[in-house]
Amino acid sequence: MFMSIECGSFNRKLSVLPATPYDTELDRDGVNPGNQMFEKRTSATFLRELLHESIEDLEVSADAGCRFCKLLLACLNGYLDNGNWIAGDWKGEENLIMQ
Fold it and tell me: Which residue ranges does the record assign to the Hexokinase C-terminal domain (predicted)?
């Protein structure tokens, strides 16, 4: 006997879990808009993008920016490798080098 425990279509109509602006944007711009809403909020495939968008907003909302937020964005964008800068085109990296 086999049992499928797939739950990606749970809350398809957004009646159980609240939707954030990040969820709405990811769904609108991503694959299968309106489908797999639960999966888009919990799977590793989408969590990177959700984290990236929320950190960008956090950085924008802080006047001077947040050093930790900039470091996270650099990591998410692939500009750090074991703590070393691997690209020089990320804005502001000269202010962010960790000792």
Answer: 1-57
> Is residue 18 a contact partner of residue 46, using CB atoms and an 8 Å limit?
no
- Alpha-carbon distance 21 to 3, whole Å? 34
Supply the pLDDT for residue 30.
Answer: 81
What single DSSP character describes residue 81?
E
In terms of residues, how long is the chain? 99
pTM of the model: 0.52
Cα–Cα distance between 54 and 61 in angstroms, integer? 11
**Tokens representing residue 69 in the block:** 């937020």
Beta bridge partners of 85: 80
- Closest Cα to residue 20, out of 40, 36, 43, 35? 40
Residues 99 and 7: their CA atoms lie apart, in Å, by 44
Of residues 81 and 45, more confidence is placed in 45
